[in-house]
Specification:
Elements lengths: L2 H27 L8 H21 L8 H21 L9 H26 L8 H23 L10 H21 L1
Helix pairs in contact: 1-3, 1-4, 1-6, 2-3, 2-5, 3-4, 3-6, 4-6, 5-6
């Protein structure tokens, strides 16, 4: 198996683990995240990424959960973000668990395909990066999303930037790289 195939397998395994958690939480809470407006979802991503950075800097968790589960949460919230972009927010849970899983699988597949294309072009550069760099890049993507949301609130348009969806995809992929790296350690 060449390095690209190995990365694809590792990515699929990371997503499968995230999917299993997502499905269990869906069972317990249904698609309660459908209520999240874009800014609340962005803030949820922010607190997860901020916690990772805090743990990286402090080297200690008083809650007992580590960095890897937070990267997994970023993957799941990134996929939720893509679903919310497509569907808009709702006042109540308006999709079944089955529909939520179908949407999850579609966006997880899109993230995988994007990762494959970028990984080809960047020639596995992510493997030489530090996990803390993924964290900082994710935080940067979240700041970009906040700026885009603010631009949209003002009724303005983007001039040269990718949209929120591209930033969610990058967050998913950087978080998956974090999960892979932490699994290898």
């Amino acid at each position: 198996m060449d390095q690209f195939e190995h990365t694809n397998t590792q990515f699929e395994q990371a997503i499968a683990e995230c999917r299993a958690i997502f499905e269990k939480k869906l069972h317990d809470y249904r698609a309660s995240w459908r209520i999240l407006r874009p800014t609340a979802l962005t803030d949820q991503l922010f607190i997860k990424a901020k916690r990772i950075r805090s743990l990286e800097v402090k080297k200690e968790s008083l809650v007992g959960e580590g960095i890897r589960p937070e990267f997994m949460a970023l993957i799941n919230y990134g996929i939720v973000g893509l679903i919310q972009l497509e569907r808009g927010f709702a006042d109540t849970v308006d999709i079944s668990n089955q529909e939520a899983m179908l949407l999850y699988d579609r966006y997880a597949h899109e993230a995988l395909e994007l990762m494959k294309r970028k990984n080809h072009d960047y020639d596995e550069a992510w493997r030489s990066m530090r996990v803390s760099s993924y964290t900082d890049l994710i935080l940067t993507k979240i700041e970009r999303i906040k700026e885009i949301e603010d631009i949209e609130v003002r009724g303005e348009h983007l001039v040269a930037s990718e949209g929120i969806d591209a930033n969610y995809m990058d967050i998913i992929n950087y978080a998956a790289f974090g999960v892979i790296k932490l699994t290898e350690e």
